[in-house]
């Protein structure tokens, strides 16, 4: 995929400012809303079972995240997910901590079975656990992985008929007919909580303006990673606090010039 396509999709996000409905976790709610706003999208968090179907139907994308799950939230996610499926609204699922406890693994499987998920986005361990394998996870953070993330993403995509996105040093985006590898970002992203969750929401914003989920997710990965690199250049050695603030600034500033200079996307069809 060329840099121009990525810039065009980013421009579409900013022009259309799609509504992104998030049912997410208590840790990252504010950061996710601010990150989506910085990018140019329009966030809403709505969790009540009485309103989630209505909200999901009017959104450009629905983002489900089980970071701080409970029975009511899981039910709300399934109601919202089914409504989004009926209305043709893309659904992104972030299986935070899948494999850390049986409850999380079961909830993730239930959501994947009852909702047609367009993009499954997690770290390698989470995606392995959703694919029915053993992924090494410590709470919500990925541990060492034995398996190649490319093979793992392909397997998860085939099992659930979805686009699977595994993030890390290289982001792998796999679906039945495409594979993208995106080498952008910075290890500092792992020192700020919620950067994975916000990335899943940013994929939602791109899916709202581009029907091909693989193309949308790969573009989102490049934009997100280039913004992180720019933030590191500015906040430098200051540390994670300054980086978090500067990253929001750079999500607002990233554009065609920095994408064409720094986006690193490998495409296989
Ligand atoms: P974990 O909890 O294991 O950190 P996560 O859900 O927070 O997982 P990450 O895999 O950390 O998600 O991905 C969040 C963002 O950080 C993505 O944009 C990803 O590309 C980026 N990222 C993660 N690790 C690195 C790295 N070593 N180098 C560059 N970018 C990275
Ligand atoms: N605990 C439950 S959810 C959550 C934590 C720390 C946030 C995880 O965010 P991310 O984006 O996976 O780092
Ligand atoms: Mg993280
Ligand atoms: Mg995560």
UniProtKB/TrEMBL annotation:
Alphabetized InterPro entries for the sequence: Hyethyz_kinase, Ribokinase-like
Protein name stated in the entry: Hydroxyethylthiazole kinase
Record field: catalytic activity: 5-(2-hydroxyethyl)-4-methylthiazole + ATP = 4-methyl-5-(2-phosphooxyethyl)-thiazole + ADP + H(+)
Catalytic EC class: transferase
HAMAP family: Thz_kinase (MF_00228)
Family: Belongs to the Thz kinase family.
Superkingdom of the organism of origin: Bacteria
EC number(s) reported in the record: 2.7.1.50
Organism: Bacillus badius
Residues engaged in binding substrate: 45, 194
Keyword Transferase found: yes
Cofactor: Mg(2+)
Pathway stated in the Swiss-Prot or TrEMBL entry: Cofactor biosynthesis; thiamine diphosphate biosynthesis; 4-methyl-5-(2-phosphoethyl)-thiazole from 5-(2-hydroxyethyl)-4-methylthiazole: step 1/1
CDD domains: THZ_kinase (cd01170)
């Amino acid at each position: 995929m060329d840099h121009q396509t990525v810039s065009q999709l980013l421009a579409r996000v900013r022009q259309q400012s799609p509504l992104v409905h998030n049912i997410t976790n208590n840790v990252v709610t504010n950061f996710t809303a601010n990150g989506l706003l910085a990018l140019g999208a329009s966030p809403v968090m709505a969790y009540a079972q009485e309103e989630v179907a209505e909200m999901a139907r009017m959104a450009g994308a629905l983002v489900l995240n089980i970071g701080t799950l409970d029975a009511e939230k899981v039910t709300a996610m399934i109601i919202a997910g089914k409504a989004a499926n009926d209305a043709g609204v893309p659904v992104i699922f972030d299986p935070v901590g899948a494999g850390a406890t049986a409850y999380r693994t079961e909830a993730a499987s239930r959501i994947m079975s009852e909702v047609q998920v367009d993009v499954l986005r997690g770290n390698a361990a989470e995606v392995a656990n959703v694919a029915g394998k053993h992924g090494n996870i410590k709470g919500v953070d990925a541990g060492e992985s034995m398996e190649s993330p490319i093979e793992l993403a392909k397997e998860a995509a085939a099992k659930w008929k979805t686009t699977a996105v595994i993030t890390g040093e290289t982001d792998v985006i796999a679906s039945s007919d495409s594979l993208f590898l995106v080498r952008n970002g910075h290890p500092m992203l792992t020192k700020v909580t919620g950067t994975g969750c916000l990335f899943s929401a940013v994929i939602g914003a791109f899916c709202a303006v581009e029907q091909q989920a693989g193309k949308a997710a790969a573009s989102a990965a490049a934009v997100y990673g280039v913004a992180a690199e720019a933030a590191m250049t500015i906040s430098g050695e200051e540390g994670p606090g300054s980086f978090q603030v500067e990253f929001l600034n750079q999500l607002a500033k990233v554009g065609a010039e920095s994408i064409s200079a720094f986006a690193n996307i490998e495409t296989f069809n």
